Amino acid sequence: MPSQLSREAFDRLQNEYDDLTTRGRIEIAQKIEEARALGDLSENGDYHAAKEEQGKMEGRIMQLARLLEDAEIVESEGGDTSVVAAGCVVGIRYEGDDEDEVETYLLGSIEERRDGVTVMSPGSPMGKALMGGAVGDTVSYDAPGGELRVTIVSIER
Question: Between the chain's N and C termini, which has fewer beta carbons within 10 Å?
């Protein structure tokens, strides 16, 4: 299933990919070369640290390449907030909670992260239940502890 990303998130990830595959690879190659110059590689902590950093960076490059290759760019449809869709920030209240107990989630890829908002996958049980819902709707979904019901109290783009 393709990842749904906003144009902003797609561009940010593309820039990160471009940076890692150019500047990042050059810098890590220099670190490895400098560490090799220090001598015996079997006991060279700088060398092993640089190789570990290289492995992590290459893992992120592969992750970004897959994500960008399969990404579906979702544009906010004129700021429509009548129904829950990918890219929305949704305020929900669990059944039985007080009126002021509202939790807010960004419905989208983890790569869409924003400060102060928890990300929820549209493919998660609650995400699937919320998709297409409107303010005031109560939806239910199966959770490990049994069925839960939530009411949609706000939708923002």
Answer: N
In a domain, 105, yes or no: yes
d(CA 75, CA 41): 50
HSE (side-chain half, CA atoms, 13 Å) at 56: 7
- Distance, CA of 142 to CA of 4 (rounded, Å): 24
pLDDT digits (tens, 9 = 90+) for 70-107: 888 876 554 567 888 888 899 999 998 998 899 999 98
pTM of the shown model: 0.68
What's 146's domain CATH number?
Answer: 3.10.50.30
Q: Which of 20, 129, 126, 136 is nearest to 67 (CA)?
A: 20
